[in-house]
Predict the structure of Nucleic acid dioxygenase ALKBH1.
Amino acid sequence: VVSSELSISSVSDQDAYRAGLQPVSQWKAYGLDGYPAWPGFIFIPNPFLPGCQRHWAKQCLKVYPQKPNVCNLDMHMGAEETIDLWGQSQECLRNKGSSKREPRSLLEKLRWVTLGYHYNWNTKKYSADHCTPFPSDLAFLAKQVAAACGFQNFQAEAGILNYYHFDSSLGIHVDESELDHSQPLLSFSFGQSSIFLLGGLKRDEAPTAMFMHSGDIMVMSGFSRLLYHAVPRVLPNPEGTTLPFCLEQAFPSDLSDCSVIEHCSEEDWQICTKYLQTSRINVTIRQVLAAGQSFLDEPKEERQWDATSENCYHQEEDEVKWHRLNTDS
Ligand SMILES: O=C(O)CCC(=O)C(=O)O
C-alpha cells in the first residue's frame, strides 16, 4: 500500500463540508504498489464528517429507491406495489427480532437500485431513452470526491446501488458499459464491512484483497478503471458492535442551510439501524458519456428496456463460483 496524492486545492473546505466531508487536507488516500499512481486506484478511508454518513445511508434506504428510480423489485411487482418501499417496510423492520425465519420486509428484498441513466442488466448497456434525473445531493458528493482525486469535470450520470446482507456477494466483473472510460468510477460503502477483490485486466489474474468499511471511498480510474473486481464476502464490522462507531455518531447540530446533508430524524435512524446491523450498501457513481458525446444509433430492439429481467451480477452464497479462490485453495 502506498500513499496517494490528492488535489487539495480543487475542493474548498466549504464544499467538502456541504457534502458532509472533512476538508480534503485531512483525508488519507492510498494506492497499491505496482499499480499506476495517477490516474489509478485510490482508496480513501472514511473521509466523512462525524454523523454525516447517516444522511447518505438514509437516502439509500428511504429516498433513492423511490420512483422514478428503478429497482430489482420492479421486475416482478406492480408499479403501485413498489411506490413506497420505506413506508411498507418500517413496521416490519421496527419489530424485527434476531430470528432468520421472520418474513423479510421489502427493503430487505431490495438488491439494487439504478439512478440517472438506468443500467440495463440484460443488454449491459445504457440508453438515451431510459434516463431519469440523477439525485442532486449525490451528484454534489461525487463531484467533490472526483475533484479531490484530480477529475474536475466529472459528471454523475449513472448510479448503481447494491444492497448486501451477510449471505450476499457480488460476482467478478468489469464496469465497461460507460462510453467514456477516461472518467473515474466512484464507490461509497455504508453499513457492515466487506472484502473487495481487485483483479487484473484478465479474469484469471490473481486479485488483491482488501477490507471496505463503512464510509470508505474507492476510486477506479485510468489503468484500474477496467480491472476485474468482486465482493466475495460481507462481514460484521471489525469493532464487533451492532453498527460501526462512525454510524453511531450523532448528526452535527450546527449543519448550515447550504449543506446538502439533511437532518435524519431519530425515528428514521432507528429503521436504518435495524437494516444496517445486518447489511451493507454500496453506491457506485459513473459518468456515462464524454462531454458532448451522445449514444450511437443502435438497433431499436437493443435499445428497448427489458422490464422482465432481474439479471445482475449479484449472487447468493451457494452460487458463488470463485475460480481464482477455488484453484488457489
Ligand atoms: O459493492 C462493491 O463494493 C462493489 C460494487 C461494484 O463493483 C459495482 O457496482 O460495479
Remarks:
- The CA atoms of residues 49 and 291 lie 32 Å apart.
